Amino acid sequence: MFKKLSKEDVHSRSNVKSSVQRAMKSKLVSQYPKLEEVIDELIPKKCLFELIKCEDKIQLYRVNGEILFFQKFDELIPSLRLVHKFPEAFPTVQVDRGAIKFVLSGANIMCPGLTSAGGKLPEKKDDELDKDTTVIINAENKENALAIGKLLMSTEDIKSINKGHGVEMIHHLGDCLWNLSID
Amino acid sequence: MPLKTVVYCDICTFPPEYCEFSGKIKRCKVWLQENHPDLYTKLYGEEGSAGTSTATTENKLEKSLRKLEIKQENRDQRELAKKMGSKVVIKRLERTKRKCVVAISGLEVFEIDMKKLSKTFASKFATGCSVSKSAVTGDEIIVQGDVADEAEQYIKTLLSEKGLTSIKVERVDDKMKKKVKT
Ligand SMILES: [Zn+2]
């Protein structure tokens, strides 16, 4: 999603009204309920909350100078900066060490990278994730997430089919969103 | 405070555990050791040897990482060489007998933000300043008024802040039709 994005692709910047801020905060919490306990710390009552509209209808939300989440359609997607602050709020999968460099080059994630010994998918039946779930991607022996993606098949299918693309890349360390500087 | 603060590498911007994939690991390691010695020890051990796994897949990975590193280093070197071989041209153009403009070109190689610089100049010299697209010389900054000396000074400081001290800044005076090297 952020293969190409630079200052030139920014159309407008505006401050977000506090009533809209409150709505965004509750939308975030409704999507990721665990964020509730930290939402006021992430987005304090008094903060510089900006909406940055970009090419391709991508909207970035920046809080005190840091892009915390973005949206293209209705869904709000966290940025890696936000994920790193509070990873437990988001559904997570893990790739093996061999897959890291492909992920960092922006490739979609292949199923075997998730099902091998170094990978990790939800184990319990109740924790299985549906197709189209936005997930954060961790890596073998690493503490922090390196990417955010969308499941192209359910985690059950990833395990049983174990072929082809399992996760569509949205945002990764080193992509244009990660490196974006606007000021 | 349940919010985590993650350290980001000043060199490659990744969390340090991912520095090995950035292709800049040598410089990353130096930075980490200087700025976060505890993290350095945690990641690279006392001697600075990352991972002692001898499995063949791991070896393969290490090899491809090293390749990436070399590639990145070569790229950095090429870029530096390109910068060292480039120059900034400050041209003074006479409009009328009393009025002139200053055109500055050759800045993009040095990763200087021309839009920002033109804003700075506009307020610094209290004058009009714009970025004009030119296919021949590349993008130029056009400053209204005879401020070539001041602009040159400012650009030189900008360059030295980037660690580029021996870059040529060439002065051209359009009326004289003579190059003045500085
Ligand atoms: Zn680094």
TrEMBL record, chain A:
<dbReference type="GO" id="GO:0005737">
    <property type="term" value="C:cytoplasm"/>
</dbReference>
<comment type="similarity">
    <text>Belongs to the TMA20 family.</text>
</comment>
<dbReference type="GO" id="GO:0003723">
    <property type="term" value="F:RNA binding"/>
</dbReference>
<dbReference type="Pfam" id="PF01472">
    <property type="entry name" value="PUA"/>
</dbReference>
<feature type="domain" description="PUA">
    <location>
        <begin position="91"/>
        <end position="174"/>
    </location>
</feature>
<comment type="function">
    <text>Involved in translation.</text>
</comment>
<dbReference type="GO" id="GO:0001731">
    <property type="term" value="P:formation of translation preinitiation complex"/>
</dbReference>
<dbReference type="Pfam" id="PF17832">
    <property type="entry name" value="Pre-PUA"/>
</dbReference>
<dbReference type="InterPro" id="IPR002478">
    <property type="entry name" value="PUA"/>
</dbReference>
<protein>
    <recommendedName>
        <fullName>Translation machinery-associated protein 20</fullName>
    </recommendedName>
</protein>
<dbReference type="InterPro" id="IPR041366">
    <property type="entry name" value="Pre-PUA"/>
</dbReference>
<dbReference type="InterPro" id="IPR015947">
    <property type="entry name" value="PUA-like_sf"/>
</dbReference>
<keyword id="KW-0963">Cytoplasm</keyword>
<dbReference type="InterPro" id="IPR016437">
    <property type="entry name" value="MCT-1/Tma20"/>
</dbReference>
<dbReference type="InterPro" id="IPR004521">
    <property type="entry name" value="Uncharacterised_CHP00451"/>
</dbReference>
Automatic annotation (TrEMBL), chain B:
<dbReference type="GO" id="GO:0005840">
    <property type="term" value="C:ribosome"/>
</dbReference>
<protein>
    <recommendedName>
        <fullName>Translation machinery-associated protein 22</fullName>
    </recommendedName>
</protein>
<keyword id="KW-0689">Ribosomal protein</keyword>
<dbReference type="GO" id="GO:1990904">
    <property type="term" value="C:ribonucleoprotein complex"/>
</dbReference>
<dbReference type="InterPro" id="IPR036877">
    <property type="entry name" value="SUI1_dom_sf"/>
</dbReference>
<dbReference type="GO" id="GO:0005737">
    <property type="term" value="C:cytoplasm"/>
</dbReference>
<dbReference type="InterPro" id="IPR048517">
    <property type="entry name" value="DENR_N"/>
</dbReference>
<dbReference type="InterPro" id="IPR046447">
    <property type="entry name" value="DENR_C"/>
</dbReference>
<comment type="similarity">
    <text>Belongs to the DENR family.</text>
</comment>
<dbReference type="GO" id="GO:0003729">
    <property type="term" value="F:mRNA binding"/>
</dbReference>
<dbReference type="InterPro" id="IPR001950">
    <property type="entry name" value="SUI1"/>
</dbReference>
<dbReference type="GO" id="GO:0001731">
    <property type="term" value="P:formation of translation preinitiation complex"/>
</dbReference>
<dbReference type="InterPro" id="IPR005873">
    <property type="entry name" value="DENR_eukaryotes"/>
</dbReference>
<keyword id="KW-0687">Ribonucleoprotein</keyword>
<keyword id="KW-0963">Cytoplasm</keyword>
<dbReference type="GO" id="GO:0003743">
    <property type="term" value="F:translation initiation factor activity"/>
</dbReference>
<dbReference type="Pfam" id="PF21023">
    <property type="entry name" value="DENR_N"/>
</dbReference>
<feature type="domain" description="SUI1">
    <location>
        <begin position="88"/>
        <end position="159"/>
    </location>
</feature>
<dbReference type="Pfam" id="PF01253">
    <property type="entry name" value="SUI1"/>
</dbReference>
<dbReference type="GO" id="GO:0002188">
    <property type="term" value="P:translation reinitiation"/>
</dbReference>
<comment type="subunit">
    <text>Interacts with the 40S ribosomal subunit.</text>
</comment>
<dbReference type="InterPro" id="IPR050318">
    <property type="entry name" value="DENR/SUI1_TIF"/>
</dbReference>
